[in-house]
Amino acid sequence: MSVSPEPPEDEVIYREVLYFYFWIYVALLALLILFAVLIVPAAAKGFTGTAVFSGVVTVFLILVLVNFLRLEFVITEKTVSFGFGVFKKRFPREAVTGCEPYRLTLSNYLGYGIRWGRDGTTDYNTRNGPGVKLLIDGQTRPYVVSLNDPTRVCGILSGGAREPGSRGRA
Fold first, then answer.
1. Is 99 exposed, middle or buried (0-12, 13-18, 19+ CB in 10 A)?
2. Paired residues of 64 in beta bridges
3. 91, 94, 108, 96: which is closest to 146 by C-alpha?
4. Average pLDDT value over all residues in the chain
5. CA angle, corner 152, sides to 147 and 158, nearest 5?
């Protein structure tokens, strides 16, 4: 019995990882500690409902912190992907019909994470500032993603080919 070789892996052309502002992690961690500290005294005093509620909120905050730890944006030879933890989008590169630099503002998205903008976009956002707006074939809403170098990303996507000598960016 022969084993066929695995197909070559899709080579990464561009990769960027972004994190939220430090104060957001501190605020979530403070809430996590507050609710975690409430569990034992509430249970000891017979406040089962408070203990259960605090436990559920603690688990939820842990899941939020772990899942939304970082935003990753990757362009490979064949795909474009972006997202947080389990909430990721992946599209074939040829499905990207438009890319333009975009300025993300708190007034448009009213927060950070995955948001629907007042301008009709879906946002994957870690901060205010630069990003890209991607038009994807078959999608009703454009996607906006926080990025440090939107001009470079749009150049890679519109050129359809690899940048000369690039090996991606971590």
1. buried
2. none
3. 108
4. 85
5. 110
- Give the position of tokens 């975690």: 36
Token pair 């019995």 is found at 1
Q: What is the tens place of the pLDDT at every residue in 130-143?
A: 999 999 999 999 99
Give the residue carrying structure tokens 């960027």: 16
Q: What is the 3-state secondary structure (H, E, C) of the chain?
A: CCCCCCCCCCCEEEEEEECCCHHHHHHHHHHHHHHHHHHHHHHHCCCHHHHHHHHHHHHHHHHHHHHCCCEEEEEECCEEEEEECCEEEEEEHHHEEEEEEEEECHHHHCCCEEEECCCCCEEEECCCEEEEEEEECCCCCCEEEECCCHHHHHHHHHHCCCCCCCCCCC
Q: Please, which residues bridge with residue 103 across strands? A: 130
Rg of the chain on CA atoms, in Å: 20
Dist. CA 125–CA 21, nearest whole Å: 11
Antiparallel, parallel or unpaired: β 96-104 and 87-92: unpaired
Q: Which of 150, 137, 17, 119 is nearest to 72 (CA)?
A: 17
Its pTM stands at: 0.77
Amino acid at 25: Y
